[in-house]
């Protein structure tokens, strides 16, 4: 049992590392393709969609290749758990990093800052659509049967969000900039990185083009390759969390809501941390929040929609209720909304995001993790609390 569990954890770690390195290539490519977007919009669209691909692909794999309806419960747990991670860990880490480590100034020297500020418009915009997405999810999950049209409704929420962002983008009136599509191969680059190192670190620009300056064509090639690698990593991750759940003899919900959620949030964390350390606080936060909107709407909606079209059937979550996983999934939707409300209150009450607020956000996730672990261990008072909350939710809905 111990060896099987260690193998599963090693596969989770391997998947996380692969996603982390592949995300570096993805960031370079998406940064080039979104170079003309205004602050906040780039982070909430290109970066957020790309960094949320692990959640989308993991939900697809769990649903279609592994445990169908049980797998979809695992997909819900992955996306919702990732949303909790994004809402608490990523802003908290960004704040703590820039306050205690610092950001680079124009001269490239790292300076500590006492606090950061994020545009109220970014918070209100992304907050509105995120809460809207969560309310829609809460309503849809009140039914024990998930149908294809529910996936279409969830994706419709993201379509509204994306449409609003495009209107905002046009109103900014940014210039087109240079396309860089000319085939100027520039130099071979000042630094020669070995092909083996580029392959091991998934540095596709170095591997394909010798580290030459990106143009649109090269960026799309790098983007596609990075996405393919992330897909393979998600398959490894899916196998690992299913194997861990079987080994521990616990519902898939528990391994996905912590292990898969954290592993698939690596791209969001890396992108947001780099934005924060570069002083781009709006993009750092909007990437995390925009990723949450994508996770809840597209990463859950698209697999459900495709599954319904392929199999011409619904997903009955209640069939897995014997192990209590459905009760946890139902509670998770409300907990997610509560966590989101706490995070937005933290951002909106006082514009200054100090180190104390960052530590507070990190402590929220620590509390969440402890709750999940105790629930998996069948701690009596935790089980009684879950049953009571679930009964209240059932009465209200």
What are the key terms here?
globular, 397 residues, mainly alpha, two-stranded antiparallel ribbon, two-stranded antiparallel sheet, 3% strand
Describe this structure in words.
The chain has 397 residues and is mainly alpha-helical. The chain contains 14 helices and six strands. The chain has helices spanning 2-33, 41-51, 53-100, 120-140, 148-172, 195-200, 204-209, 216-248, 252-264, 266-277, 281-311, 325-348, 355-376, 380-396; strands at 103-104, 110-111, 115-116, 145-146, 315-316, 353-354. Strands 1-2 form a two-stranded antiparallel ribbon. Strands 3-6 form a two-stranded antiparallel sheet. It has a two-stranded antiparallel sheet with strand order 4-5. It is globular and about 55 Å long. It starts with a helix and ends with a helix. The relative contact order is 0.22. The model is unreliable at 174-191 and 318-323 (pLDDT under 50).
Q: How would you sum up this structure in a few lines?
A:
This protein is mainly alpha-helical.
List the helices and strands and how they pair.
Layout: H1 2-33, H2 41-51, H3 53-100, E1 103-104, E2 110-111, E3 115-116, H4 120-140, E4 145-146, H5 148-172, H6 195-200, H7 204-209, H8 216-248, H9 252-264, H10 266-277, H11 281-311, E5 315-316, H12 325-348, E6 353-354, H13 355-376, H14 380-396
Antiparallel strand pairs: 1-2, 3-6, 4-5
Helix pairs in contact: 1-2, 1-8, 1-9, 1-10, 2-10, 2-11, 3-8, 3-9, 3-10, 3-11, 3-12, 3-13, 4-5, 4-11, 4-12, 5-11, 8-9, 10-11, 12-14
Shape: globular
Number of strand segments: 6
Largest pleated sheet: 2 strands, antiparallel
Order of helices and strands: HHHEEEHEHHHHHHHEHEHH
Poorly predicted runs are 174-191, 318-323
Output the number of helix runs. 14
Proportion in helices: over 70%
Percent of residues in beta strands?
Answer: under 5%
């Amino acid at each position: 049992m111990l060896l099987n569990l260690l193998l599963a954890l090693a596969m989770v770690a391997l998947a996380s590392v692969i996603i982390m390195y592949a995300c570096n290539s993805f960031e370079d490519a998406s940064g080039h393709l979104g170079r003309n977007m205004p602050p906040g919009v780039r982070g909430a669209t290109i970066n957020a969609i790309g960094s949320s691909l692990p959640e989308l692909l993991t939900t697809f794999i769990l649903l279609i290749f592994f445990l169908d309806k049980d797998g979809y419960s695992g997909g819900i747990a992955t996306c919702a758990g990732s949303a909790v991670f994004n809402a608490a860990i990523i802003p908290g880490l960004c704040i703590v990093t820039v306050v205690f480590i610092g950001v680079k100034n124009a001269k490239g020297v790292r300076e500590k800052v006492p606090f950061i500020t994020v545009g109220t418009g970014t918070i209100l915009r992304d907050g509105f659509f995120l809460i809207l997405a969560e309310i829609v999810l809460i309503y849809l999950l009140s039914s024990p049967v998930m149908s294809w049209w529910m996936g279409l409704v969830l994706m419709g929420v993201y379509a509204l969000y994306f449409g609003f962002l495009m209107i905002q983008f046009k109103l900014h009136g940014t210039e087109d900039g240079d396309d860089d599509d000319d085939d100027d191969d520039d130099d071979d680059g000042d630094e020669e990185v070995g092909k083996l190192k580029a392959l091991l670190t998934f540095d596709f620009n170095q591997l394909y083009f010798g580290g030459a300056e990106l143009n649109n064509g090269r960026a799309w090639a790098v983007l596609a390759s990075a996405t393919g690698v992330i897909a393979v990593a998600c398959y490894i991750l899916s196998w690992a969390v299913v194997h861990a759940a079987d080994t521990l003899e616990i519902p898939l919900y528990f391994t996905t809501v912590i292990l898969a959620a954290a592993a698939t949030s690596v791209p969001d964390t890396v992108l947001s941390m780099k934005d924060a350390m570069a002083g781009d606080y709006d993009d750092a936060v909007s990437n995390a929040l925009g990723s949450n909107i994508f996770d809840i709407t597209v990463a859950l909606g698209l697999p459900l929609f495709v599954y319904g079209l392929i199999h011409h059937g619904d997903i009955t979550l209640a069939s897995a209720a014997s192990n209590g996983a459905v009760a946890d999934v139902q509670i998770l939707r409300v907990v997610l909304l509560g966590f989101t409300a706490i995070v937005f209150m933290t951002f909106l009450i006082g514009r200054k995001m100090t180190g104390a607020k960052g530590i507070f956000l990190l402590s929220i996730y620590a509390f969440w993790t402890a709750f999940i672990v105790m629930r998996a261990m069948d701690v009596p008072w935790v089980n009684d609390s879950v049953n009571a909350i679930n009964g209240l939710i059932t009465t209200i809905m």
